[in-house]
Amino acid sequence: MNRLSKSGYLLFLPAAFFFSIFYYWPLLVNVVLSFFSWNMVSSKIKFVGISNYTDIVQTAEFYSVIVNTVLFVLFLLIFNFVLPYIYSYILAYVLKYGKNLYKVFFFMPSLFSLSVASILFLWIYNPLAGPIDAILQIFGLDSPRWLKEPILVIFSISMIIAWKVFGYNFILMLAAMMSVSKEMIEAARLEGASDWVILRKIIIPQTSSSAIYVFVITVVFGLQYVMIPVNILTQGGPNQGSANLVYVIYQYAFVFYQVGKSAAYAVLTMLLFVIFAWWRNKVLDKKVYYEN
Amino acid sequence: MRLKAILSGLFCMLALLVLAGCGNSTSNSGSANDKVVEIEYWHVASDSFGGQTVRELVADFNKTHPNIKVTEKFNPDMYKGLTQNLQAALASGQTPDVVQMGWNFLNYAHENFETENIDKIFADAGDPNFIKDTFEPNIARLAQTDNGDQVGVPYSLSLPVLYYNPDIFKAAGLDPNKPPKTWEEVAEYAKQIKEKTGNPAFFMQEYADTWTNQALVESNGGTMLTHKDGKWQAGFDTPEAAHAYQVIADMVKNGTGLHATNEEGFQSFTSGKLAMVATTIGKRANFEKSSNFKVMTTTFPAFGNKPVKVPAGGNFLMILSKDKAKQKAAVEFVKYLESAENLTKWDTGTGYLPPRKNMAQEGPYKKLIDENENIKKAMEMLPNVTPWVSFPGQNGLQAEQVLIDARDVILNGSKTASEALHEAALKINDLLK
Questions:
Q1: Cα torsion A158, A163, A167, A170: sign
Q2: CA nearest A119 in B: which residue?
Q3: Which Pfam families does the record match to this protein (chain A) (predicted)?
Q4: Is A52 exposed, middle or buried (0-12, 13-18, 19+ CB in 10 A)?
Q5: Domain check: are B268 and B334 in the same one?
Q6: H helices of chain A, where?
Q7: Which domain covers residue B253, as residue numbers?
Q8: What is the pLDDT of residues B51-103, one digit of tens each?
Q9: Looking at the domain A60-287, which fold is it?
């Protein structure tokens, strides 16, 4: 029933043309590059087979990078998925006054660029001259080294991204919360359902399609956002403590000038994202309610 | 009919694409027939870092040299950014003629960017002794590889110095006119300041490079890199190097030293909270401008009475042109940039130190020094300048990263300097194979 006519194919062609040039061709080149050792300039390009991959998998660095990436995802899910979910519920169903004020306040930071946010937080985190330190000093405490301790650095960077992204995700969730039909909730109330039952049986299922969208962009975009503060504030440090899958691709290509390894990392990263997308489609989508 | 419309639409789009592609190539070949030689100059001078000076220098050169036209191009993100852009430019065959190359990219540039021998380029242009006549031997050597090949012409120098805040010194009962000369004194001063003010008192820059660490190691009699059995190996797996690193780590451990990102350390200093910062003289103008106290400078501290050795930061000029006429024009331009007067302009705009002989004794730069005590202190260290070690080979830049990571581990206190340096040396030797 959805078969294309001749002119249909023709209309499809320009998009396909650009898509294959700007998406699939680079992807193919990237896969090819991952089998070579090259620095992008030298005339010496050496075919090394799969040794870029075997080298990567054999280093401890690869696994610490994956652990860091998972930690980033966990923190980002808490700040940019779970919290917006709870806040939007509170705003839609619990709070009586000042809703618009909160909407504006929460959304405002998402208008700033991440570089601006990074510089801002550089001041906030300053262990000797920053405001957090000033507060801690009142209690006689020393400021932690926000950007210089393993794991803490991932939390600190996730906070910067949360500051920017929270508002946008919050507005998306709020729109979904508001569109749950009032009649259904009224009817449930008349039947004597508690707030908890209404949340579990009506609101969560009804907002699940938006929630899944926010969940996916939190993971996929979030990992790309990580690149900017990491590059500005830590360059992957301390001791590669904030290096993640996206940053190492950049680091190998443009800091170490090892294109082959970088391409291999990119392919591995893509595979992980493919697995994520497959899991989302197969497992997660089954539990989601779509209106149409 | 509809099909036709669609087809013509597609055709228009294709035509546009093709035309857009042609546009570039036609405009490039337009001026090839003129007598004027066009060369391109790549630099890292942003508007807050001598950008205006570069534009003035280039405009003035073009005015006084009617047969040469220099176009300047700014590259963001300093020398790393410039090298990245250069990679791309060379890959597409659009080579600039004169570039500012960071000292730490010397080996990399020499191994990867095919250039004609710089001595031959100057000889062909009729001035074979320019480099020898213009620079002291230890400065000319900075732009040479280890086997003595001259890769470029020294242009901008920076070196690490110790900045301090005289107000905090006074508050802690220290004499601002007697800044610490050795690391032992730095540690004592920091301890006294910590006791009086409660704040950490010392920060050493933590850029993603090993510049100041090299200064520490070499000033304590250590080396970064050694040549053994025909192979390059890490040279810092020694007690001297470990002790040099450990001095800073101990200060961090007992709370008198600050371990933070670079910008955090600098902010703490300019906001008057931190007493001492060891970083590049290139930060002088910025510090003087953004602090509300009188920023003072002293020479990089020594270990006991061992001689201080500081690696050169900044850049040298490389000539990449293949064409003879362009090479000649590039030499002309480089000589113009290296004149005492133009170096003074450039260094006023950026805060770099001039590489040329006798700048401190005569001419326009002497005036500058007489007015600013901080520059004078830095100029005193020029005889102590050594080349910034860059690790050789395809994995060289990755090897440097290993050492950067080791610094974090040491300052963190999770390992002692000798343990961390030993592990880093093993990794680096593996990478340099």
A1: positive
A2: B263
A3: BPD_transp_1 (PF00528)
A4: buried
A5: no
A6: 6-19, 25-33, 51-58, 60-77, 83-89, 99-107, 114-125, 131-138, 152-178, 182-190, 195-198, 204-206, 208-225, 227-229, 245-250, 259-279
A7: 160-311+392-432
A8: 999 999 999 999 999 999 999 999 988 888 898 899 888 888 889 999 999 99
A9: MetI-like fold (1.10.3720)
Question: Which residue is closest to A125 within chain B, CA to CA?
Answer: B264
From the number of C-beta atoms within 10 Å of its C-beta (0-12, 13-18, 19+), residue B335 rates as middle
CA distance B46 to B77: 9
Q: Which residues in B lie closer than 8 A to residue A125 (C-beta atoms)?
A: 264
Under the banding of pLDDT at 50, 70 and 90, the label for residue B195 is: very high
A130-139 pLDDT, tens digit per residue, is: 999 999 999 9
The tokens of B103 are what? 């000292």
Transcribe B106-147 into DSSP letters.
HHHHHHHS----HHHHHHHTT-TTHHHHHB-HHHHGGGB-TT
Q: Which residues of B touch A233 (CB under 8 A)?
A: 261, 263
| Domain extents in chain A | 60-287
B190 and B305 fall within a common domain? yes
Contact A126 B260 (CB under 8 A): yes
For residue A94, is pLDDT > 90? no
Count of domains forming chain B: 2
Cβ contact (<8 Å) for A148 and B112? Answer: no
CATH number at residue B234: 3.40.190.10
* B212 plus B247 within the same structural domain: yes
What is the percent of chain A where pLDDT is above 70? 98
B211 shares a domain with B65: no
Question: How big is chain A by its Cα radius of gyration, in Å?
Answer: 23
- Is A46 at the interface with chain B, CB within 8 A? no
Report chain B residues touching chain A, CB-CB < 8 A.
2-3, 6-7, 10, 13, 80, 84, 87-88, 90-91, 108, 111-113, 199-200, 208, 255, 258-261, 263-264, 267-268, 271, 273-274, 394-395, 397-398, 401, 404-406, 408-409, 411-412
Best mutation target among A115, A231, A239 (most B Cβ atoms within 10 Å) is A239
pLDDT tens, residue by residue, A194-231? 989 999 999 999 999 999 999 999 999 999 999 999 99
B377 to chain A nearest CA, in Å? 28
* Closest by CA position to B201, among listed B177, B241, B172: B172
Q: Locate tokens 């040299």: which residue?
A: B65
Compare CB distances from A7 to B6, B267, B401 and report the shortest one's residue: B6
For residues A5 and A3, what is the distance between their CA atoms, to the nearest angstrom? Answer: 7
Residues B50 and B148 in one domain: yes
Instruction: Confirm whether B27 is domain-assigned.
Output: no
Any chain B CB within 8 A of the CB of A59? Answer: no
B335 and B213: one domain?
no
Task: State the nearest Cα–Cα gap between B127 and chain A, in angstroms.
Answer: 31
Geometric angle at alpha carbon A281, from A174 and A13, rounded to 5°: 95
First to last CA, chain A: 19
Please name the amino acid found at residue B275: A
Instruction: Give A142 to chain B, closest Cα distance, Å.
Output: 10
Q: Give the contacts of B348 (CB within 8 A, at least 6 positions apart).
A: B53, B368
Mutant choice from B264, B271, B401 vs A, greatest count of A C-beta within 10 A: B264
Same domain, B411 and B265: yes
Residue the block writes with tokens 């990992």: A223
Tell me the ipTM for this assembly: 0.86
In angstroms, the CA B123 to CA B144 distance is: 17
